Structures are given as structure tokens and as C-alpha cells.
Automatic annotation (TrEMBL):
Protein name as it appears in the record: Protein CapI
Record keywords, A-Z: NAD
Keyword NAD recorded: yes
Domain NAD-dependent epimerase/dehydratase span(s) in chain numbering: 11-252
Domain of life: Bacteria
Organism: Bifidobacterium callitrichos
PANTHER family on file: EPIMERASE-RELATED (PTHR43574)
Keyword NAD recorded: yes
UniProt xrefs under SUPFAM superfamilies: NAD(P)-binding Rossmann-fold domains
Amino acid sequence: MEKIDLQYSCILVTGAAGFIGSNLAKRLLEGVPGIRVIGFDNVNDYYDVRLKKYRLKTLNCYEDFYFIKGDLADKEAVFSLFEQYHPKVVVNLAAQAGVRYSITHPDAYIQSNLIGFYNILEACRNYPVEHLVYASSSSVYGSNKKVPYSTDDKVDNPVSLYAATKKSNELLAHAYSKLYDIPSTGLRFFTVYGPAGRPDMAYFGFTNKLLAGDTIKIFNYGNCRRDFTYVDDIVEGVMRVMQGAPEKKTGEDGLPVPPYAVYNIGNGHPENLLEFVTILQEELVRAGVLPEDYDFESHKELVPMQPGDVPVTYADTSALERDYGYKPSTPLREGLRHFAEWYKSYYMNMSDSVQA
């Protein structure tokens, strides 16, 4: 593994207005001396743009944060950015997310996740970087029956277009690593949650509906199990991976052995969805988002599995532990408590939040 010193370096974070990207940028700016972070994002309206602007407002307080609004599918914009800043490390978190949205809006996934990622790879080839780190997803495991999911498992059975694009990213990165000796590491994230997260995620949507007095649907009759991973744990994992790139080597044929790796980042402890919702409700009551006498039973409905979903996600993180000495560990209740407290301060005091 090649050690990379991030101090006094220029780092590109795509998807900087997004959930993970904004948290990573903040952590870099606060924790690494002399760093410059270039944030790139198209700030699209897949979900409430005010939330993205809220995250960017926090980042704009740092004098070493530079934000560029642009689209990864715009090759000229991407190349211009690389030519101007020559980032040392690129963390590509920009993507069209969501399993269900990919069923109704496939074009967005091809543009962002395939063409956009190709443009990043081309830029890394033409303006060499020391390490490309990019977001993959636990969705690539598709219909695999074996759990926990290991990066040694075959992932040839995607059950959504979103998953197929993420698997394609891994294949493209491998090809570019082999052809052009670009050190690249893919990270398969497992159900990330936390304050200022994505409103399309279940915990966020459940909260909105419970507060509105609507009924929430719990799929697979509550028998889904998810490896919920707190956002700070994800960011810590990304930080560690950024600083250790796959080593460049020459094979017996005299050609480069691709400096390529893929890791899971998950909590390694799948939670039953019904238990998850119960803890969420308790923490929402504790934070004052819901009243103490809230009738939870009358606001939930157990329904069948929906297309594109899988019954369980569960990460084998042994490779991450072996190579980087790290394993996510934030308990679910602690993470949901932080979310509930943030939700109370943001949404229930909306007048103090970003409205522009």
C-alpha cells in the first residue's frame, strides 16, 4: 500500500453538496493542515435543494473550500477543473442515488453514474492523480444469498439499474487501473444514515410521514434487515482509504498489475427493520419531534417486498480491518439520536435554516 500525505494537498470531492460528500469535506477541512478541498456538484433537485444549500453553507465558512457547480456528464467542465487544480486525490461521491428512482428515471443514472464516472476516469488519466476513491454500493450484491457479503463474492446479479451502474463503475475503474496504472479504490457503502441525510432514505421518509400523521409502509412485513452505517463511520473509513492507495506493481509480463481494490464499509451488524423503526420512533419522541403519547401502532402498515429490494444487507468488513485497521462501530440508537436531534433543530425551526 502506498501511503499518501494529505497535508497541504488539493483534494477533489465530487458530490460535495451531498450527504457523505459534505461530511467528508468538513472533516478534511477541520482535520488536515493546509488542505484545499475542491467541491463539485450539480445541486440537482432529486431531493429538496434547500438541504443541499444548507450543507454547502456550512462548508463555505471554510476559506480553503472552493465550490464549483457543474455536472460530471459535462466532460469539458470536468477537464477544466482538473487542469486548473490538479488534485492529488479524487473522491468521487457524485452519483444519481436510489434503487427505486432508477426504475422510473433510468436516463439520470446513465448520465451521472456511467458517463460522469467515465469523465472522471479520463480526467485522472490525462491529469494523473495519486489515488481515485469512488463510491460503489452494497446494492451490487443483488440477489446473492450468502451473508455476510464479502468483496470476494461474485456480483453478477444486479436487481436494479442503480446496482448495475455501480458494478459498471468497478469494472471501468479496474480497466483504467490496468491500462493507465491509476490507483483506484471502490467503497461499497451499506445504508448510510445520520443528520442532514438524504430525504429519500427510509429513516428520513418515515420521520416525515410520522410527523405528518401519515401511515408508513414497512416492506417485507418488517423482515428486511439492513446494515445501517452512521455517516461519521463512513467518513472515517473514506479518510483512511484516501491515505493508502493500492500499490503500483509490474507483473511477470512486464505490464502493470492494476493498482485496484474494493472494500465494504458497513456496520457489520444487520438490524431488523421493525426494530429499527421502533428505535427511531423512541428517539423522535425523546427529541420532541413526536409527542410522548404518539400512537405508533396505528401509523404503520406491514407490506410485501418491493421491486429492486433485497431482504438483507450485511457487510463483511474484514478486509477493511486488515488493511486499514478500521471497523465502523456507532450503535444504531446513538446514530438515530443524533439524527432526531438534528431533525428537530432543522425542520422544526425552518425559519433559521437556508431558504434561498
